[in-house]
Every structure is written in C-alpha cells, then in structure tokens.
Amino acid sequence: MKNYELMYIVNTTATAVDEGAKVVGFITALGGKVIKEEFIGKKKLAYKIGKAVEGVYSVVNFSLDKDKIIEFRKKIALNENIIRSLITVYV
Fold this sequence. Notes:
By secondary structure, the protein is α+β, with helices and mostly antiparallel strands.
C-alpha cells in the first residue's frame, strides 16, 4: 500500500462532516486505511468555481493499493459536493 494525501474543497451548501464521512467510506470500502483527517475550515476561494465563492477545505492522509487509486479518483470526481480535489503521494 502507498500513502496518499487528498486535499478537497466542499461546497458550502453541503455539510463538510458528511462529505468527510463519505470520503472515509470510499477509502475503507476500497480496502484502504485513513491515517489522519483534518478539517481546515471555510475559506474564500481565489476565483469562482461554478457559482461557489467560498468552500470548506479538508485534508485526508490515507494508505491505499496503487491499483485502486484510479477507482478512488473516479468516486471523488462523481461527488457533486466536492468542487475541487488533489491527490498526491504522501511520504
């Protein structure tokens, strides 16, 4: 398993805690393990994303098989409440 870091922005119309639980659920459903979860809080966006001018930032460190990371990216992309996300390898 490789370690990854996911940073994502949740639309303010959704509950960040619920979306965080969904993200953790995606990771565990794929056989991964959450190392650390951190809610950074609501911040104004540098530019509009769709109609959103602010969002709730969160970071999750997790481990997952590299074969399953593509499927995880698809699940994150299909969630309409997550307006931006970035997955990097965490060392």
